[in-house]
Amino acid sequence: MKTLLRIDASARRSESYSRRLGDHFETSWRSTYPEGVVLTRDLALDPPPHLTDETIRIFVGEGSVGGAAGADLSESLIDEMRKADEVLICSPIYNFGMPSTLKAYVDHVVRYGYTFTQDEKGFHGMLNTKAAWLLTAQGGMARFGVPDFQAPALGAVLKHMSVANIHHIALEGTVYPDGALGERLAGALAGIDRWFNLAEKA
Ligand SMILES: Cc1cc2nc3c(=O)[nH]c(=O)nc-3n(C[C@H](O)[C@H](O)[C@H](O)COP(=O)(O)O)c2cc1C
């Protein structure tokens, strides 16, 4: 039985394009894996706190676990991620990067001794998650010089925890006034459908 962990980061709800792409993905995933389990983590509804001095002391082994809300939360977020065979991240671009809620989440799950370790040969990821799917929405268009620092950062973070099989669909130009958003959205939804057509053939 497969488990998917779906993480949403848009502060918007019904108007959010990244959530809309995520809903399409989740519907297809559930019909491909009817016995599967979907865990959801909505970072807008339940934003993780920023790291504190006390939390970092516990992360590096200088404090005791229990009592520090951040460290307890980190362990429960990591437990949730360990259950996932696949991770779906649905996220907007805010100010060229990931939303601060998603960055705070990353700071809680990328943790030495839990999701990565290190020896003389370098870092080694510790997650068994097989694949990650990134569905991102951005108001601007890359070809007009609006950069996306989120996807490379998330890719590096996932690889660091040993999630190597990463797929990304970006819906660009959600506020770009060229009248072609409908086509771009249809293209992104069709891209998701192609992932599932490939999964069914595999
Ligand atoms: C605070 C904020 C910052 C944003 N910064 C960017 C940006 O740097 N680049 C960009 O292309 N769009 C930017 N946008 C536009 C959003 O990426 C766009 O509206 C996207 O569709 C939001 O995702 P959502 O539809 O899932 O909510 C920003 C929007 C907000 C609210």
Automatic annotation (TrEMBL):
Query: Where does this protein hold FMN?
Result: 10, 16-18
Judging by the UniProt lineage, the source's domain of life is Bacteria
Q: EC no.? A: 1.6.5.-, 1.7.1.17
Q: Which UniProt keywords apply?
A: Flavoprotein, FMN, NAD, Oxidoreductase
Top-level EC class: oxidoreductase
Q: Which family does it belong to?
A: Belongs to the azoreductase type 1 family.
Q: What does this protein do?
A: Quinone reductase that provides resistance to thiol-specific stress caused by electrophilic quinones.
Query: What's this protein's name?
Result: FMN dependent NADH:quinone oxidoreductase
What is this organism's lineage? Bacteria, Pseudomonadati, Verrucomicrobiota, Terrimicrobiia, Terrimicrobiales
